[in-house]
Write a structure and sequence with these properties.
By secondary structure, this protein is mainly beta. The protein is about 5% helix and about 45% strand. It has one domain. Strands 1, 2, 3, 4, 5, 6, 7, 8, 9, 10 and 11 form an 11-stranded antiparallel beta sheet that branches. Strand 1 (about 25-30) and strand 2 (about 30) form a beta hairpin. The N and C termini lie close together (about 10 Å).
Length: about 120
Amino acid sequence: MGKYPKKLPIKLQERLHRYAGRSVGIHAEGLSLEPGKLTKVFKTFIIVQGERFVPRSTNYIQVFDVPRSAAFYRVGVRTTFDASGIFDDVQLVLIGKDFIELQTGDESNDRYLLPLNKVVGLFGL
């Protein structure tokens, strides 16, 4: 793909609402939970396995079993946290108002939602 995806006027909470009912993993400073069902999405927090989380304070949310997008831009992502290289070569699917959405280059059907306050920069590959 030749250029970054168009920025859409959608917020992280709105995007998560689309994924309600799916299995998600919550990754935050000192926290990496086993996947659980995203049951509710509220204005400022979500409920996964009966526990409340503030998505904008997480490092990223991994959403499982999402059909792969054919429209993407291959990028590397620099983050404010140690991502252990998982975002060094990924596919940028969406840029929202306060998040980006990525998928890996392999055949997995996972998406990664990163709040923009955790993104230092993007570079094309």
